[in-house]
Amino acid sequence: MVERKPTLGILAHVVAIFGVLIVAFPIYLAFVASTHTAQEIVQRPMPLLPGSHMWESYKSALFGRSVGAGSVAPVARMMWVSLVTALVITFGKIAISLLSAFAVVYFRFPLKGLCFWAIFITLMLPVEVRIGPTYQVVSDLGMLNSYAGLTIPLIASATATFLFRQFFLTVPDELIEAARMDGAGPMRFFWDVLVPLSKTSIAALFVIQFIYGWNQYLWPLLATTTEDMYPIVIGIKRMIAGGDGQNEWNIVMATALLAMLPPALVVVLMQKWFVKGLVDTEK
Fold first, then answer.
1. What residue spans define the domains of the chain?
2. What's the pLDDT at 108?
3. How many angstroms separate the first and last alpha carbons of the chain?
4. Which pLDDT does position 67 carry in this prediction?
5. Which residues of the chain have pLDDT under 50?
6. Residue 78 burial by CB count (10 A; 0-12/13-18/19+): exposed, middle or buried?
């Protein structure tokens, strides 16, 4: 039996609150900056209370503006590009990983073990390492500055394949025999048995891969050449073009807060499934 001490409980709450304040304070500063004009932000000391220009800042960020030191493209378009890119990467990774793990576990073919380890070893070759050859291939195929060019090179995932393979290995053989006795073929067994059993793992991977796709920076930096195909992360960087006096920091901060909303919403809505997919061991 664990003895509860009020002093330890109070101390734990104080530490937790202090940690939340440390994490939330930069976000609060970004929000405050987005409600002031650019001139007010660079003054010393910077205002610590919200101003009266919130609507103007977010309107200028979402729908663009005519002048500015950096990019003046509408953030709404950038968020759409990021959303499409993140969803295509996420669903593509999950679909390909499910099928590849299913083939590796349940099919017999020559050099099956070698094929799995060939997939797994690609973890040692991230996009940053193979970015030169990848860019050359995408350029030769005419996929630069397109959704295909932004997503296809990032779809394969050895990590997700490995996780699904480990899960499939724990599925009881009795389920396989029962499906076979019912006349279910391989794909029927896959869709009706394995996919429903994997739903919590799929949900956890969805959250991880969505955030991965949304936060992509290096590859979109090379694969996009016009503002209409900038994802939101590239858009934030393009807005910062000069010194403090030249940049419209209120627009930059508003854009940064808008960029946080979709990933945060995904985490909040799928928190239960995400945690269950990581810790649940029931089959």
1. 6-63, 75-279
2. 83
3. 30
4. 65
5. 1-2, 281-283
6. buried
Residue 128 has what pLDDT? 76
150: nearest Cα among 216, 71, 209: 216
What is the full DSSP assignment across the chain? -PPP-HHHHHHHHHHHHHHHHHHHHHHHHHHHHHTS-HHHHTSSSPP-S--S-HHHHHHHHHH--S--SS----HHHHHHHHHHHHHHHHHHHHHHHHHHHHHHHH---TTHHHHHHHHHGGGGS-TTTSHHHHHHHHHHTT-TTSHHHHHGGG---HHHHHHHHHHHHTS-HHHHHHHHHTT--HHHHIIIIIHHHTHHHHHHHHHHHHHHHHT--HHHHHH--SGGG--HHHHHHHH--S-TTTS-HHHHHHHHHHHHHHHHHHHHHTHHHHHHHHH----
| Identity at 55, one-letter amino acid code | W
Q: State the pLDDT at residue 63.
A: 85
Q: What pLDDT is recorded for position 277?
A: 67
Q: What is the pLDDT of residue 243?
A: 59
Instruction: Tell me the residue type at 227.
Output: E
User: What is the identity of the amino acid at 185?
Assistant: G
CA distances from 250 to 28, 45, 78, 80, 243 (A): 13, 16, 18, 21, 14
What is 75-279's CATH number? 1.10.3720.10
Which residues fall within 8 angstroms of residue 241, CB to CB, at 6 or more apart? 69, 70, 71, 247
